[in-house]
Design goal:
The protein has helices spanning 49-62, 70-86; strands at residues 18-23, 29-34. A two-stranded antiparallel sheet has the order 1-2. The protein is an alpha+beta fold. It starts with 17 loop residues before the first strand and ends with a helix.
Length: 88
């Protein structure tokens, strides 16, 4: 039953969920639970980004994380930068 304020209660099971409201011509109302995606994150659902993200997550699930040796990383970057400058 719709209360005096125009609200309905769906129960605690649906607390905090977002719904799309569809009013049909025959007078019925359809509520569909939806997930909202912020506009600034919509790009993650578009190709080629979606596939790249999925591949990355699959790779991460199959590979153990390990600590990075920052000194080695900086050394390899310095070597690559030096080589790239020498080609100019």
């Amino acid at each position: 039953m719709v209360g005096k304020s125009g609200q309905i209660s769906l129960g605690k099971r649906y607390a905090g969920k977002t719904f799309r409201l569809e009013r049909r011509q025959d007078g019925t109302v359809l509520l569909t639970a939806v997930a909202m995606v912020p506009e600034n994150q919509l790009w993650t659902l578009e190709e080629p980004h979606r596939s790249r993200i999925e591949r990355g997550l699959t790779w991460a699930a199959g590979n153990k994380s390990q600590e990075t040796d920052v000194d080695d990383l900086l050394k390899s970057r310095t070597k690559r930068t030096t080589r790239a400058r020498g080609r100019r």
